[in-house]
């Protein structure tokens, strides 16, 4: 029989993201962030390709990116409310980690599997932050999908993309529980 890790299973069954707008200082320093990044990097990775990397955004970088979102949004004629919402995640944030998907050419591991691995890194980082007592939220936003934002303001290569932006900080209030999926509706059992 397997040996259960009841604490880990309980955490996973009760985990809850913290809205980024409820996060404040203090935020993890570099030494406190290192074990969270280490945990995130232990994600499933077919072929051991490490098709992802991290960009840690500290406060000054967050302010710069908020300005970039506002300027780019205006140039692209994005609706003002969408510009404001996307910029707000940076103006209100104090620390975030951009998980960059950087797929590599490999005949055995399709790009799609590599992108799934980058998504798994996002969830692992989110859960590591929450398990460590920090509040955390996984966001993206329209700017995350704009090449000019990614390449000019974050230094991504043309083949790279943002898998997610994980905001981490001290939570000011715990969110209420929300409805969860009905397993009977989303699970199919095949016996033969």
Write the layout of secondary structure elements.
Layout: H1 6-14, E1 23-24, H2 30-40, E2 52-57, H3 59-75, H4 80-91, E3 96-101, H5 111-131, E4 135-139, H6 147-154, E5 161-171, H7 183-186
Antiparallel strand pairs: 1-5, 2-3, 3-5, 4-5
Word description of this protein:
It is a single chain. With 192 residues, the chain is an alpha+beta fold. The protein is built from seven helices and five strands, in the order H-E-H-E-H-H-E-H-E-H-E-H. The protein has helices at residues 6-14, 30-40, 59-75, 80-91, 111-131, 147-154, 183-186, and strands spanning 23-24, 52-57, 96-101, 135-139, 161-171. The longest helix has 21 residues, at 111-131. It is globular.
């Amino acid at each position: 029989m397997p040996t259960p890790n009841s604490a880990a299973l309980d955490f996973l069954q009760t985990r809850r993201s913290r809205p980024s707008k409820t996060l404040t200082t203090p935020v993890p320093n570099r030494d406190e962030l290192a074990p969270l990044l280490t945990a995130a990097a232990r994600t499933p990775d077919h072929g051991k390709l490490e098709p992802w990397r991290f960009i840690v955004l500290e406060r000054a970088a967050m302010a710069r990116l908020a300005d970039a979102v506002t300027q780019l949004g205006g140039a692209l004629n994005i609706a003002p409310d969408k510009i404001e919402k996307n910029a707000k995640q940076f103006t209100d944030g104090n620390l975030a980690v951009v998980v960059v998907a950087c797929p590599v050419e490999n005949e055995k591991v399709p790009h799609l599997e590599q992108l799934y691995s980058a998504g798994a890194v996002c969830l692992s980082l989110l859960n590591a932050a929450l398990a460590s007592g920090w509040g955390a939220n996984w966001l993206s936003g329209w700017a995350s999908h704009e090449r000019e934002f990614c390449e000019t303001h974050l230094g991504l290569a043309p083949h790279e993309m943002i898998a997610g932006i994980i905001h981490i900080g001290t939570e000011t209030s715990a969110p209420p529980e929300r409805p969860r999926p009905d397993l009977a509706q989303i699970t199919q059992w095949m016996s033969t």
